[in-house]
Write a structure and sequence with these properties.
The chain is α/β, with parallel strands linked by helices. It contains six helices and six strands.
């Protein structure tokens, strides 16, 4: 089973900023979310995380060694990193939703993100048939992972909402993947 865990909250998340690859630590609530998520998931065979500190801190809540895989790093928002989401014009969001090759200034396209994430998932697919593997990542790579499991194009990501410290599960066989759970957050009840 592939278990995809979005990292806990950071100051940028709380402030409504496009965080991208800004390397921020979890805030106090984010640390509690990471602990609650690890407890809800329980024992696993492997823990893999994005190299960004918020993902590494969330992964550390499992209390075992963490493998780092750069393919699960967040989308590069380029010049928009640390920019409030609300400051990106509606017309720009519409253009982005309609073009998988849209690139934020000095950033990354959704096609590029989807390609690297699918490569990471394919490398884990055979092992995840017989192992429970947690991948601690970010909103965009996890949405791309869900699109991979569903066999849908990367623009599916625009139709998905993924909360902080949420859990998704993808069951794999040697020749297929199936989405079992999406955006599970019941383990976070009472934390905010």
């Amino acid at each position: 089973m592939l278990i995809l865990l979005r990292h806990g909250r950071t100051k940028a998340n709380a402030g409504g900023l496009l965080q991208g690859r800004i390397d921020l630590e979890l805030d106090e609530l984010g640390e509690l979310q990471a602990q609650a998520a690890a407890a809800a998931i329980g024992p696993v065979d492997r823990v893999i995380a994005s190299p960004l500190v918020r993902a590494q801190q969330t992964a550390a809540a499992f209390g075992q060694s963490v493998e780092t895989d750069d393919r699960f790093i967040e989308l590069d928002y380029g010049d928009w990193e640390a920019k409030p989401v609300k400051d990106v014009p509606a017309q720009t969001w519409a253009e982005w939703r309609n073009d998988l090759d849209f690139r934020p200034p000095n950033g990354e396209t959704l096609n590029e993100l989807g390609h690297r994430v699918r490569g990471g998932l394919m490398d884990l697919a055979a092992d995840s048939v017989h192992q429970n593997i947690v991948v601690v990542s970010h909103v965009s790579p996890i949405k791309a992972s869900v699109a991979w499991a569903l066999g849908t194009p990367d623009d599916t990501t625009w139709r998905l909402f993924l909360g902080q410290a949420s859990i998704c599960r993808i069951a794999t066989t040697l020749d297929s993947a199936r989405l079992i759970e999406f955006n599970v957050t019941t383990h976070l009840a009472g934390l905010d």
